[in-house]
Every structure is written in structure tokens, then in C-alpha cells.
Amino acid sequence: MVNILHISDIHFPSEHMVVTERELKQGIVNFLDNTDDENIYLLISGDITFQGKPQGYKEATLFFKEVIEKSKGKIDPKNILLCPGNHDIVEGSNFELFDKFSYTLRGDSNFSYNNGPSYVIKRMENALFLGINSVYHLDHQFGFVNIEELGEKLKSMSINEGVRRIAFTHHHLVNQFQRDTSSIRNASQLISLLDHYGFETIFHGHQHTNSNLILGKSQMFTIGVSTPGFEMQGYTNGINYYKINQEGLESNRYVYSRDNESGGLLGSFKVLDSKYYTR
């Protein structure tokens, strides 16, 4: 079983949030307290900050370090998965501050995107995680993937049968809104490539809304998560929690509610719905 807590588009500084930083932090900690799962992966799929503001990285670092400390060992820093978003590009330094943020949380440089390739691969005993930088081209307006570079890497790899193959990126692959032009421009090529190498999931953020699609010949689960605290009029703020096993994927959507009680305290995430995808 692979358990993943998915958070995206948190957009620090906290002045842009519809809930306070304290409320959001406590809501995530309450969620972790209320699950019996251990060895949880924390996936942060970009837009740590807002419009590349360095102050956002400082706030986000303190925020996530406290969440990890209060997880009581359920989130090992080495199990944090990251990729940058379009708001994480800092003028004059590209992804340098993002890499510093990643290093501070994980304690290593495994998820660095500034001077290396446009992807990161993390091998675990029962899973292979592929982080894809959909803003490697440094354009804030749309997503794009270096298909040639990624294809050469996947071609050279040997992946054992039965290993869960999980990809994640910032931008969505299919538009939800009529005037949206920000999706990954070469999404069709990306789907074909990941499909060919047996990836079963693609997680993403960017749209600040949830989406659930099944793509490719192998029926890849493609799931987008909403923003946990950034203002989106008419949409709910939340996080996702996934359970992946041999049979398929369970996707649980949580929304933040100030009047939801947990452990005697008001304000926490509550489950909105659960979807089961089987092969």
C-alpha cells in the first residue's frame, strides 16, 4: 500500500489565504492525527509561493516543518515529494529558492530542479515516483514538458514488475475552463510516453480545483487537487489523500470547514467524497 497526502497551490505568503495559516496547519495536523496509516508520502505539487515572492518560501518552510514535526513520525522528511509550479519561478534565480525550500524540508538535494534535468526520479522499495517540471521552459503562461529528455531517461531505466509507477507534475493535462490556455501544451505526448512505460497515476495541481480523469490505453488515473487555502470564489478549499494498492486507487477528497469539530477543536478537514478506481 502506498499512502499519499496531496497538497498543491498553497500560495504563501498567508495574506492571500481565505483561512489563517494557523487554522490550515492545525487542520492538516488533525487529519494526520485521525489516520492510523504510517509511512505517509507528502506530495507538494507546486505553487509554494505567489508570483515568485521569496517571502512565500520562508513562510512555507516554517509551515511544513511544523506539520512534519507534529505528524509524530507519520511523514518522514525523505518521503516528501515536490515539483515546482509557475508561481515558484523567482526572477533572476529561476528555481534556486524552490530547491532551497526542498532541501530544508527533506535534508537532501534529491528534489532539485534548478540546474539539473526537468524531472526527478525517486525509487522506493514498492514504488517509483516521477516528478516532472512542467515549467522548466520558464514561461508562466502554460505548462510544457521536455518529452525528449524524459523519454531518453525512461528508455534507459529498468523497473521491476509490480512496482507502483506514480508520476506528478504541476500543470493539468486537460482544461476544465473554456478560456484556460495554461494546460500542458504537449500533454498528448506525455500521456503516450507515461502510458508506454506503465505509469498508473498522474497527480497535479494548478487549476485550484479537483478533477478526475482516466487516460491512456492502460487507463491511467489522472487526478487534480484543489488549493487548501487560496481564495477561489465558488470552489471549496481542500486536500486529497490517496491509497494505492495492487487492485487500484482510492482517492479521498477533503475540504476545510471552520465549523467541523475534531478532537474537541473547531476547524478541520472533513471528507467530501471518495472514489475507487480499479483495473
UniProtKB/TrEMBL annotation:
Pfam families tied to this protein: Metallophos
Keywords tagged on the record: Hydrolase, Iron, Metal-binding
InterPro entries linked to this entry: Calcineurin-like_PHP (IPR004843), CNP_phosphodiesterase-III (IPR050884), Metallo-depent_PP-like (IPR029052)
Domain (Calcineurin-like phosphoesterase) ranges: 3-209
Domain of life: Bacteria
Record Gene3D superfamilies: 3.60.21.10
PANTHER family, A to Z: CYCLIC NUCLEOTIDE PHOSPHODIESTERASE CBUA0032-RELATED, PHOSPHOHYDROLASE
Family: Belongs to the cyclic nucleotide phosphodiesterase class-III family.
Protein name per UniProt: Metallophosphoesterase
Natural source organism: Pontibacillus chungwhensis
